[in-house]
Write a structure and sequence with these properties.
It is built from six helices and eight strands; from the N terminus they run βαββαβαβαββαβα. The strands form two sheets. The protein has a six-stranded parallel beta sheet, sandwiched between helices. The protein has a two-stranded parallel ribbon with strand order 7-8. Helix 1 packs across helix 6. The mean pLDDT is 85. Pathway: Bacterial outer membrane biogenesis; LPS O-antigen biosynthesis. Belongs to the NAD(P)-dependent epimerase/dehydratase family. InterPro entries: Epimerase_deHydtase.
């Protein structure tokens, strides 16, 4: 059975990955804070992400989901995410883990019209997206210079049946269930692109098995 590390283990996507992959993989779940939902067959580690080599040793792959979220102070987002991602890549290399699935973001495309392609120029509009691009470029250097396999997944906003009560999608579903008009509480040109969490799980798991480098 392959052994994998999942960072950002308290996040929505990580929790679902752990729940659905723990029967197929031996999982080490890493988070900065105490992990809420625990399974007896999963190893849980609290870490500040500064000393990861010992945690990564003996594993076959890392699914790197941890990040400073875009609603935090913008001044800190760019540098903290780049530092975090570099430490994960460095630690994987030093511990002999060759396969990394790195979660980037669809926001690297900014307000470019859909459909998007990984071959088109990126157009970031905030520090979170700019940091993700910088980390993607760093990942490319590891692939070329250190023969690592790193896949960058440019994920849209994840949704699942665990959406919090006041989320836009939950409000839509409840309004639709009651036969009401769908009410949007904001005005202007704000758009959202969503990805169902099971689809993102399939992407991540597929690249763990494939052990190759792609953008998606």
């Amino acid at each position: 059975m392959n052994k994998i590390v999942i960072t950002g283990a308290n996040g929505l996507l990580a929790r679902n990955l752990i729940e659905n992959l723990r029967h197929e993989f031996m999982i080490t779940a890493v988070s900065r804070s105490e992990i809420d939902c625990r399974y007896p067959d999963v190893k849980y580690v609290c870490s500040d992400y500064e000393d990861l080599v010992a945690i990564f040793e003996g594993h076959d792959a890392v699914i790197h989901l941890a990040a400073t979220r875009p609603y935090r102070t913008m001044d800190s987002i760019y540098q903290s995410n780049i530092t975090l991602d570099k430490n994960v890549f460095d630690s994987a290399y030093l511990s002999g883990v060759n396969n990394i699935i790195y979660t980037s973001t669809r926001s690297v495309y900014g307000s470019s019209p859909v459909p998007w392609s990984e071959r088109q120029p990126v157009c970031p509009e905030n520090d979170y997206a700019r940091a993700k691009i910088s980390s993607e470029e760093l990942a490319e250097r590891y692939v070329k210079n250190k023969a690592m396999c790193i896949t960058s997944l440019r994920l849209a906003q994840i949704y699942s049946d665990e959406e919090y009560t006041g989320s836009m999608l939950n409000r839509f579903f409840e309004q639709a269930r009651c036969g009401k008009d769908l009410y949007v509480s904001v005005v202007g040109g704000i758009t959202r692109v969503y990805l169902y969490q099971r689809c993102s799980e399939c992407h991540s798991t597929g690249f763990v098995r494939a052990n190759c480098s792609w953008y998606l």
